Amino acid sequence: MFSIAFAAMPTSDAEVLWSGGADAYGHQPETIISDGPGHPCRHCLRNIDAGEELFVFAYRPFPDLQPYAETGPIFLHKAPCQRYGAEEILPPVLASSRDFIVRGYGKNDRIVYGTGAVTPTGDITAYAASLLERPDIAYVHVRSARNNCYQCRIDKIGAPAYVDAGASI
Q1: 167 pLDDT band (50/70/90 cuts)?
Q2: What pairing do the DSSP bridges indicate for beta strands 72-77 and 53-59?
Q3: Residues 6 or more apart from 81 whose CB is under 8 A from it?
Q4: What does the DSSP 8-state code read for residue 131?
Q5: Strand partners, 41
């Protein structure tokens, strides 16, 4: 049996925003103040505490524009934070909901039909591992079950690391 790794947004993508760059739509990120849980940072994969400043911006975790390259709003600490590093452990931010959409993507960065499922949080690891056993699945996304917002990526350990897939922020 192989292992899986939960991968946060690449630091290179976060640094673009922290240094004043634009999001996937070419806009500056909006700054808001967190009112508590419900603002998961996609870089450290923790909720942003009440009173902390955060960015809201459009993110596309795919290298190229194509019909399946979903773009949507996500959150990032406004002040630089450390990227999530305990990749073999379910990230803390995923404890904030009872379920998430877990969906497989092929090497061409397109959805593999029939793989998307609203998955109880406790079953994410097992379901993602079962998808990654398939030869047609290159990686998995975890997305909000209510809003479809991107949360993180899951890769098979031993597969190419998700350091910087050329996502468009």
Answers
A1: low
A2: antiparallel
A3: 41, 43, 44, 46
A4: H
A5: 75
